[in-house]
Design a protein that fits this description.
Shape: elongated
Low-confidence stretches: 118-173, 216-221, 521-538
Mean pLDDT: 80
Largest sheet: none
Structural class: mainly alpha
Strand content: under 5%
Length: 538
């Protein structure tokens, strides 16, 4: 049908853009033909022709051949995958259209238009029928590589500016690494580092590159055993290392893993590498929760899901899902946390595993929060969820109960139980369980240890001692070194102040409490923070 549409349209003198629109309008409802596929059919060429054209453009720009192949291009046309910014740029250059013509709303990275511009009107000249124009619209793809001075796109070197044009290309040598290493050096030197737009942009760009790599990679990593040991080592360091410092370390290794995905590998090695990518991405999402950037946390968990799907491991997918449930748990809607926790249980199935034990505990915490908001059936459901979680937890192996990130430890289970009892109003039982949890945590497990202390402060509030609750919450934060006072901990402490205000009004101790929390801490740039210390601290 597309061939007939094209033939008739060419006979009527239609342009490739108009032909593509006709093909999409007539074939789309019948066969689901996408706009990007309609453009290829409008030119009457095969997948291999488009791939060859893209590779030719890479060669003209002095860049190494891309990994784009017929399979990946077919995935774009089927809607299963989306081209990254660079591939989208070259596809737009091949078809000489803007991204929206291919059904992609994001602007092109080159900042210039790709669409063919109409030639300015001129005085008509006698036509010589035996001569054919050098570049007729219907032969666009066959003559897509123009001379350098006629190119409607710009190279990566041109994007970097004249002062850096002679340097190495920035598409894959790690501009993000430069930002991360500079931040890490500043942290090691003891300098104050703010989470600015450049840093978070580099973080998100690195995550996007991993997404692009996972789309089409058959890779060949080396020394996978060492990478797996490094990945699990981060689980031991997670609580003890300041969040921003930890993020730099993790993402530098994450960047290296992404570069390893540029080489081919056997299937079994690819699965191991995707597992490492999922774990590092999930860990990055946890760190972004601590730093208070919910958007980037969600993005990293999406990347982790993409990598986990490549492994086919339901337990890994369940771990990613239950860890993602902590985003709405601490910053959003407990109903969403409840939904994700139950989804993680479905993924985990009946096989005892980390997610199978942690997901019911998260479900219980979410139900406890809903019980505080007046949901009548939440309290008994929360207690039943704790019983299920404890039952699965007792079946876990020693390795599963010894890691705070990739496992689920006894101290975490006690923390979740105590938090649930506290939310249910059983402050006496909650305080007992939380006190037990404190004895299990190491002094270096700063995040969970502080969250447990803040929960105990909430128990004192429920017991009718608001001043004692504020004092305990303030001490929990101030006992932390400044670089460990991440957004999640300060946010949790502020919730205590809000609960005191709602229950007892603006008592005098509240002012001192909020002033103590007004000092500098590590937070997201979307959060307001004082640029200078308050007058009382100067």
């Amino acid at each position: 049908m597309a061939r007939r549409i094209r033939a008739r349209a060419l006979a009527r003198g239609h342009s490739p853009l108009e032909i593509a629109q006709e093909i999409h309008e007539q074939c789309g409802p019948l066969f689901g033909t996408s706009r990007i596929k309609a453009h290829r059919l409008a030119h009457g060429v095969a997948l291999s022709d488009i791939v060859a054209q893209v590779k030719a453009l890479y060669e003209v720009d002095g860049k190494p051949p891309p990994r784009l192949g017929e399979t990946l291009l077919s995935a774009y046309e089927s809607g299963y995958k989306r081209p990254g910014p660079e591939y989208l740029h070259y596809l737009c250059a091949v078809y000489r259209v803007e991204p929206d013509a291919l059904d992609y709303q994001s602007p092109c990275i080159c900042g210039r238009g790709h669409a063919v511009r109409p030639v300015a009107a001129s005085v008509p000249q006698p036509r010589e029928p035996e001569r054919r124009p050098a570049q007729a619209p219907d032969t666009l793809v066959g003559a897509i590589v123009p001379r350098a001075e006629e190119r409607p796109w710009i190279t990566v070197n041109e994007l970097r500016g004249p002062d850096r044009a002679d340097g190495p290309l920035s598409t894959d040598v790690g501009e993000e690494d430069i930002v991360l290493r500079r931040t890490l050096l500043q942290l090691l030197a003891g300098a104050g580092v703010a989470l600015d737009g450049q840093f978070l942009g580099a973080v998100d760009n690195l995550r996007r590159k991993m997404d692009d790599t996972l789309v089409g990679a058959t890779v060949s990593p080396t020394m996978l055993d060492q990478w797996e040991e490094t990945t699990y080592g981060y689980g031991q360091q997670y609580q003890a290392t300041p969040s921003l410092r930890m993020l730099c370390d993790v993402l530098l290794d994450f960047s290296e893993v992404r570069r390893m995905c540029d080489k081919r590998q056997p299937v079994e090695l690819q699965e191991r590498l995707c597992r490492i990518a999922a774990q590092l991405s999930g860990l990055s999402g946890l760190i972004m929760i601590n730093l208070g950037d919910h958007r980037l946390a969600r993005s990293f968990f999406r990347t982790a899901r993409t990598a986990a799907d490549e492994t086919g491991d339901r337990q890994l997918r369940a771990w990613v899902t239950v860890r993602e449930s902590l985003v709405p748990m601490y910053y959003g809607d407990p109903r969403e946390a409840l939904h994700l926790a139950r989804k993680a249980q479905d993924l985990a199935g009946r096989t005892p595993g980390v997610a199978g034990a942690m997901a019911p505990a998260v479900e219980a915490r979410a139900l406890g929060m809903l019980a505080m908001r007046g949901r009548g059936d939440a309290a008994p459901s929360a207690r039943r969820a704790l019983v299920r979680g404890r039952s699965v937890f007792e079946q876990l192996s020693k390795s599963d109960t010894s890691d705070l990130v990739y496992g689920f430890t006894e101290r975490q289970m006690a923390f979740y139980e105590g938090d649930t009892f506290t939310s249910l109003g059983d402050h006496k039982h909650g305080d007992e369980v939380l006190s037990h949890a404190l004895t299990l945590y190491s002094p270096t497990d700063r995040v969970d240890l502080t969250l447990v202390r803040l929960d105990r402060a909430m128990c004192r509030l429920h017991a009718g001692h608001p001043e004692a609750a504020l004092t305990a919450g303030q001490e929990a934060i101030l006992d932390l070194p400044p670089d460990h006072r991440s957004d999640i901990l300060v946010h949790r402490a502020r919730q205590i102040g809000a609960a005191v205000s709602a229950k007892h009004g603006e008592i005098p101790a509240l002012k001192d409490f909020y002033e103590a929390l007004a000092g500098p801490w590590i937070t997201s740039p979307t959060k307001e923070q004082p640029s200078v210390p308050p007058a009382e601290q100067v």
